[in-house]
Amino acid sequence: xxxxxxxxxxxxxxxxxxxxxxxxxxxxxxxxxxxxxxxxxxxxxxxxxxxxxxxxxxxxxxxxxxxxxxxxxxxxxxxxxxxxxxxxxxxxxxxxxxxxxxxxxxxxxxxxxxxxxxxxxxxxxxxxxxxxxxxxxxxxxxxxxxxxxxxxxxxxxxxxxxxxxxxxxxxxxxxxxxxxxxxxxxxxxxxxxxxxxxxxxxxxxxxxxxxxxxxxxxxxxxxxxxxxxxxxxxxxxxxx
Length: 240
What we know:
mainly alpha; single chain; disordered N terminus
């Protein structure tokens, strides 16, 4: 996979973002390990270059970056995320995802277009899945009117946008809209791509922790419409 070019998006002015990005680029660059960078890039199918920071090292550096800084407003979150996404190395994207996960409550439904930009730009499972479950899912939970957007995303031509719709309820547990979950799975049941088929199985498997009988009943009725991969993933912990 070749590196995806970042599409431009409006970045609001933010003094906090100025501080974060100044600290972030200096701190991460100082910890870069070129010997690790090449195999990390290869493992992620060349979606982006890497600095070579291990996850524990990166998170330790991130704590240094944000130490003593105030909590962000939505405009700060937008500016930090988009400016990180404009940087080529993947660790900066990871920082943005972690930052948004931590401060998702600062964002309103107006942040959803930004989340879509992040999902659909330099796309791979390592950022998309966390954005889906922890950012998009949090936005929809806070504003149920956004389910209309998820209804549109599930039929989007961009597989990562559709995958996000499938996974956005991943952490909802008993708050899951079961009818919508099953409808989304059925809507994409014939999708040829591995990442959609895997996501179908994953979201069903996760919901099965809350209501295993509902998942068993659903698949007993509809399993012929799904790829074997989706069915195996869905039933992995509950059996047929």
